[in-house]
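TL;DR need structure tokens for one chain.
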Amino acid sequence: MTSIGIRELRDGLSKHIADVRQGATITVTDHGTPVARIVPVQAPTALEQLIAEGIVQPPTHRKRPAPDPVVADVSLSETVLADRR
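>> reply
TL;DR here they are.
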């Protein structure tokens, strides 16, 4: 894995994209702090890799929608204060 700064990436973008096409992964840094990673499109994501290794399982059901919000006549703060009395 190669680590390069933003300026170096900008100045040599075509070369770095060519490296990624050949399978390289590039970590982009901003003042030495990693901020992004450029990976080949065909590279599996971390989740895809964990699923392939059998470490995690994808969900079998779709997530249920959130319930409707509760409408109250008084604020939550007023309710809490009343309960403390």
